[in-house]
Design goal:
single chain, 133 residues, 4-stranded antiparallel sheet, 0% helix
């Protein structure tokens, strides 16, 4: 059974840092495009960052560019999201998601393409991030 499990969320002060992890079981992450999304109360789920299956493309939403970094550890079959200079508006439940590229449709994480939640078909349960003093 394919499963994604996020961890690493918590309460942090503005300006602080957190590192979220997404562990996969039942499949190998480097065969999949991986996305990080977040959803704040009363708001739509929005894309934060993605990494292509090859690792060659890493996209970021404008709101997190230069503060967040996505990375992958193939040995541990995990994808991480390092979040620096956190702001109160970063408060949300953070989800990782996966989508396997196909020969016909290709991947969903490539240069110039924004993150779309409907592109991804495997999701974790989410981890809460709260930025507050």
């Amino acid at each position: 059974q394919l499963q994604l499990v996020e961890s690493g969320g918590g309460l942090v002060q503005p300006g602080g840092s957190l590192r979220l992890s997404c562990a996969a079981s039942g499949f190998t992450l480097d065969n999949y495009d991986i996305g990080w999304f977040r959803q704040a109360p009363g708001k739509e789920r929005e894309g934060v960052s993605c990494m292509s299956s090859s690792g060659g493309v890493r996209n970021y939403a404008d709101s997190v560019k230069d503060r967040f970094t996505i990375s992958r550890d193939n040995a541990k079959n995990t994808v991480s999201l390092r979040m620096n200079s956190l702001k109160p508006e970063d408060t949300a439940v953070y989800y990782c998601a996966a989508r396997r590229p196909t020969p016909i449709s290709g991947g969903v994480c490539y240069e110039g393409r924004r993150l779309v939640k409907n592109d991804y078909n495997y999701w974790g349960q989410g981890t809460q991030v709260t930025v507050s003093s």
